[in-house]
Amino acid sequence: MQELRIVGISGNVKAPSRTSALVAFILRRIESELGLPGRHIDLAVSAPVLFRALRADQLGEEGAEIVRTVERADVLIVGSPVYRASYSGAFKHLFDLVHYEALVGKPVILAATGGTPLHGLMIDHQLRPLFSFFKALPLPTSVYALESEFDSYAIASSDIQKRIRAAVRELELIVPHARTLALARAEEQSRLSA
């Protein structure tokens, strides 16, 4: 059976980053609870490659591979620091390059980090509409973490860990469906290449 492609995207533009740490923690939780390893795209590293192009058809091979990885994912974990009441510009630029039909029906765990509890509204006012545009399936439980809920770059809050567990449980409810889609895709690709 083909493994599901789990992709985490951190919209931070500096390293180290609490956002990157949060996305990595969610990826590790998915791997430990569901046995599904994932790939982590950290925009602090990848954004300079993506910024070389304004449109997808201008991307070099390295940038195109990043966009293909996002488009071919079966599940996304997306996180951004809150910047001026929204996600980062690097995060937006990546999704400007993703084909508008590539994420239809794909489950997405939404996450963000910020300095005040009020910034947590960004998830519902910015991230959910973005992934609704893509016709993806944002899970009901999102994860918003304050700077004060980290010890350096490690999650120190049991409340945040509880929300992550809840989001992973929601993902587990729809993983059998996603697994079926992945198998169907693999069978179709094998028929086409035969």
UniProtKB/TrEMBL annotation:
Domain NADPH-dependent FMN reductase-like stretches: 5-148
Pfam assignment, any one: FMN_red
Keywords: Flavoprotein, FMN, Oxidoreductase
PANTHER family: FMN REDUCTASE (NADPH)
Family recorded in the similarity comment: Belongs to the SsuE family.
Protein name: FMN reductase
Species in which this protein is naturally found: Rhizobium anhuiense
Taxonomy of the source species: Bacteria, Pseudomonadati, Pseudomonadota, Alphaproteobacteria, Hyphomicrobiales
Gene name, Swiss-Prot/TrEMBL: msuE
